[in-house]
């Protein structure tokens, strides 16, 4: 592209960005971020095709001013973490609701496949859960304590082990998104076929309610945030497959950053799920109403933070 055409095509964006820097013109954080990324992309392009040109000097000065204003003179607010959890992340997550829905539907599909496969093939449950687990559970059922598996390990050790394992699963869902999202789908397939098989196994033994009211005390949050981690992986995969107006590399970097934020957001929830599994689930003698309150409260928390609250923030900013 000729330099004059390049300038003519992009000068409006440059002038808008310059106005933000010089005159403190108000635009949304997302728009500012997008402009800054485009300016740096244009600078790289100009360095390659228009060396020693006035266009290069202008873009270099613009990018340098932006970098200095954004990074060198920026003072972190004392409530930065609070702002991230309460406003910045939920507002940003609003744009990934479709990815979340897709991750949820994929998870439901594989859960149904796991349950159906277990119902039509007697050996399927053992191939998924393993002979050792199935035999142990059958022995627990015979001893009239089908959920005894949650009582075998010490509370603290179980809490730490489960929490770390769940975070590892979430990170794998996110990282494998670089395989065009296929790796993330594979991780969801593994986990949710197992879930479907697991629940059908107890259904077949006439223990569906007993298993559900116990397992979902911690599983409501645990399973939900695995789906959310799957959303993070799909965001990464989508950024590679569909870069839109960005270069594929720029889109990929943006996808990685967005996906990482999503995974980081799940860590407190995994800690809560690990705590419930280590310290609460083992109390199978608790009344049904208490288990239902914990399950419904956990579901409400997840739905509020990842679905309802982002929409509220978006609508508030849009109308405000």
- Please identify the structural class as seen in this structure: mainly alpha
Beta-strand content bin: under 5%
**Gyration radius over CA:** 25 Å
Main sheet specs: none
- The outline comes out as elongated
Helix and strand sequence = HHHHHHHHHHHH
From the N-terminal CA to the C-terminal CA, the straight-line distance is 41 Å
What is the count of DSSP helices, taking H or I runs of 4+ residues? Answer: 12
What features would you describe in this structure?
This protein is mainly α and 320 residues long. The protein contains twelve helices and no strands. Helix 1 runs parallel beside helix 3 and helix 10 runs parallel beside helix 12. The longest helix is centred in the C-terminal third of the chain and has 34 residues. The mean pLDDT is 89.
Describe the SSE topology.
Blueprint: H1 3-23, H2 29-49, H3 54-72, H4 80-93, H5 97-120, H6 124-129, H7 131-142, H8 155-175, H9 182-204, H10 208-241, H11 248-280, H12 288-319
Helix pairs in contact: 1-2, 1-3, 2-3, 4-11, 4-12, 5-9, 5-10, 8-9, 8-10, 8-11, 9-10, 10-11, 10-12
